[in-house]
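Re: the 378-residue chain
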Amino acid sequence: MSGFKNVLRLSLLILSSPSWSQPSPSPKPYRIAALYPKLSALNPLIGQEAICITTGAIEAAQKEGLPIELEVIDNQRNALETVRAAQTVVDKKFDGVVGTLDSSEALAASPIFRKAGIPFIATMASNPGVTQDNPLAFRIQFDDNRQAKLLAKLTANELGAKKVLIVRNASLPYSDFLGTEYQKQLRLLRPEIAMREIVIIEGFSDFEKLRDQIVAEKADVNFLPLLQAQLAPIYNQLKALPGSFTLLGGDTVGGSPTFMNMLGEVSPRIKFYFVRGWDSRPVGPLADLYVRLQKAHCPHIAQSVVNGSSFDAVQAFIAAVRAKVKKSDAAPLAEIIRRNRLRGVTGPLDFSESGSPTKPLYIYQIKPQTPSFWKLYQ
């Protein structure tokens, strides 16, 4: 009997020891939603540029052992579907959101996420309203206050304009704000510059009439803060005419192969300058990881501002999760993101004040076959 008691006592001792205790449950994963279009009529690959690198970054973080998950929610690249997608994020109680590829979508989603208390990092949206009065919202690219100010400076100083024509789309928040703010900044900088404005709306298609108006104005610089689908027909109408023109576009152009195909043959009589938010050369400590993931997960896609900005957006969340797991940081994700000051591949991401990093403008000029870097402006 004493032998049985000893065996029982030993069994109880083993079961009560730390090495034989029940394993602790795995930490609850942080769930990130990515709002990107799975298909886009304007540019079939643009959503995939963002999705492939975001998926690759999350998979790499999971291999590292971080408790993080990703779900891609198709916003079909329009504001109405983005509202639906944002509500899905809220209903499913995600911990954070990356994405949207333009300002209209981000403006629709940002207040929904703020009300639900979900941090949101806009990948490409530049309208200031996305982060304004929303401490949970951040952006990877510069905002349009900065873009308008620097483009006005470029127009006055580098392009030497004495007369400027602005064509803006009043239906599109990006175009409407950037065109209006550019005009305001140019007037403050050089009140003697003559300025005229042509306002169009979404669905506008009379590009022949618009061409005639542009020709009649005889402006030194024609500022066109429009999307590619409206920029290309304007360019093609003008290149059919004699005479020279100087066009200045915002950061929606990008110089992508899709846009270059839309332009067709490039005219040597048209100087077409546009903005990029990045020169596609990764910098910082995450550069090697970005290049490796881009080759592995996006072999059919070139390095681009969409690709790089999407990588930086999801890395901001990954870094915040890592801080919580490794350092037992009790702060909310949004607070960690704001103070982390991550060095992304597109440049430093200092969200400490407005939620928008201060970045330079990369000015390119469209040349035959490929856009060429012209000037860094900051």
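The chain has two domains: 30-142+281-349, 145-276.
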